[in-house]
Design goal:
Blueprint (H helix, E strand, L loop, with lengths): L1 E2 L12 H22 L3 H9 L5 H33 L2 H18 L5 H14 L2 H10 L7 H29 L2 H22 L8 E2 L16 H5 L3 H15 L5 H8 L8 H22 L8 H19 L2 H4 L6 E3 L2 E3 L1 H17 L2 H11 L6 H29 L5 H34 L16
Antiparallel strand pairs: 1-2, 3-4
Helix pairs in contact: 1-6, 1-7, 1-8, 2-3, 3-5, 3-17, 4-5, 4-6, 4-8, 6-7, 6-17, 7-8, 7-12, 7-16, 10-16, 10-17, 10-18, 11-12, 12-15, 13-15, 13-18
Length: 458
């Protein structure tokens, strides 16, 4: 059995704000790197397949390559989580960044589709910068500020995503897709160096003891892992469902924008895709700032608002662009395009603004029901749940696009968002009770302390 000493059980550390700022910048660079290249994977796959590639084949390969990455990540995430609890969270952030730098850079050398898909699978095994960074941040942040910290950290993800998409679209048009992968690897390497030199972690490795201790129930082995994960299962279910809904259009979105622009023979598809996806990243960034302020005190309201809003605007994306396709083309910032593409800019912004409010809620709830010594493994399994959702989203999107067309995705997605609302209503009371119980056990609760669910602790 194990026990822990030092700051692991304290309610936050003096340097938590510094770590949050450093990890914000690190995640900004990491997501910038990934967004320079991977969102344009369908176009790169088309090049690898040859100029006469069948479009249905491009859609399927795009979905499978993304799914492979998430399958391998789902398998490895709990393992990295266990290692984080045993050896520290900072080494896991370094592993994710430096591993990603090498593998993403190698993607630019892919000679064929099979090699690219293999590298995507390997990428999933060794990356996962976001889950590693979240674990490091929450491990040193006071309990009552964890919703705020996770909301702030989420803005770095979408800020980096937005910047990477904008630059990636320009790079694709000027230097080509292969060179974009090399620049992506460089950004990930810089992110790792930033954490190596500046991030701080006062981690005390658990030591084995021969006598029973109050923490003996925290020992992880093959006999009690189900007991350990059981309290978080409702949250893992919501991670899966929300990820399916949010990422359903991810692998096919570049092809959707291209289609709205007039097809593959019309120039500027990669640049226009970057514009539309940038608007989504801006929406997500603002969501972290605006909705993140309410996550600690009103998580249920934030989650339900996010589901309804995302369903509404994703549904509109299935109808409005097609109504505008008959209008004449227009030039915007020197780029010839259609009104169908232009209407996607505000719609993508609003859809992602709403849907981005879900992750901070799930992560905050998970952090507040988890003992400080087990955050690594619990967030590791959360990453696995998220990856399972991504796999299901990518494979479902590939099947929908192949058999029913890309448009069908934007009818199915809203239904998935709306199905989350009864799950939230069903599980919220149980999660509230778990948070109050753990807070009382660890001494976070005072006579005037309100639990993180927004009602008086009972």
């Amino acid at each position: 059995m194990t026990t822990s000493t030092g700051n692991n059980l304290s309610d936050g550390t003096p340097y938590w704000r510094r770590n949050l700022a450093i990890m914000w910048l690190s995640q900004f660079l990491s997501l910038l790197g990934f967004s320079l290249s991977l969102p344009f994977a369908p176009f790169f796959i088309r090049i690898l397949l040859g100029g006469d590639a069948d479009e249905a084949q491009v859609r399927v390969y795009a979905a499978i390559s993304a799914a492979l990455s998430n399958v391998s990540f789902a398998i490895m995430a709990p393992i990295w989580g266990v290692l984080a609890d045993k050896y520290g969270r900072k080494p896991m952030v370094l592993r994710a960044n430096f591993g990603g730098a090498l593998i993403v850079g190698l993607m630019g050398l892919s000679p064929n589709v099979l090699c690219f898909m293999l590298l995507r699978a390997v990428q999933g095994m060794f990356t996962g910068t976001m889950s590693a960074s979240m674990t490091l941040v929450v491990s040193c942040t006071p309990q009552k500020r964890q919703g705020y910290a996770l909301g702030v950290l989420s803005t770095s993800v979408f800020s980096g995503d937005m910047t990477g998409l904008f630059i990636g679209g320009l790079l694709a048009d000027t230097v080509g897709f292969r060179t974009s992968f090399f620049y992506a690897g460089l950004a990930l390497g810089l992110s790792g160096l930033l954490v190596l030199w500046l991030a701080k972690e006062n981690f005390v490795r658990p030591v084995s003891v021969k006598t029973p201790s109050p923490q003996s129930h925290l020992t992880i082995n093959w006999q009690n892992w189900r007991w350990l994960l059981k309290p978080a299962m409702p949250l893992y279910i919501m991670f899966i469902f929300s990820t399916i809904a949010r990422y359903l259009d991810n692998t096919q979105f570049a092809l959707f924008v291209e289609n709205m622009n007039g097809g593959k023979d019309m120039p500027g598809a990669s640049r226009l895709t970057s514009w539309v996806m940038c608007m989504g990243s801006i929406g997500a960034m603002l969501s972290g700032v605006v909705l993140g302020r309410f996550v600690d005190n009103h998580p249920k309201k934030v989650a339900k608002f996010s589901c309804r809003g995302a369903a509404c605007f994703m549904g509109i994306m299935a109808i409005l662009p097609y109504m505008l396709q008959s209008l004449p083309r227009v030039s915007v910032m020197g780029q010839d395009t259609t009104y169908a593409v232009l209407c996607l800019l505000p719609l993508r912004f609003l859809m992602i603004f709403c849907s981005a409010g879900l992750e901070p809620v799930w992560n905050t709830w998970l952090s507040k029901i988890t003992h400080p010594d087990r955050k690594g493994i619990m967030f590791g399994f959360a990453a696995t749940a998220r990856s399972i959702g991504c796999v299901l989203a990518h494979l479902s999107a590939g099947a929908l696009a192949y058999f029913l067309g890309v448009r069908s995705i934007f009818f199915v997605g809203p239904m998935l968002f709306l199905l989350l609302i009864p799950l939230i209503n069903h599980y919220e009371k149980d999660i509230s009770a778990q948070i109050a119980n753990l807070a009382e056990k660890l001494g976070y609760q005072s006579k005037d302390h309100r639990n993180p669910m927004g009602r008086q602790a009972r």
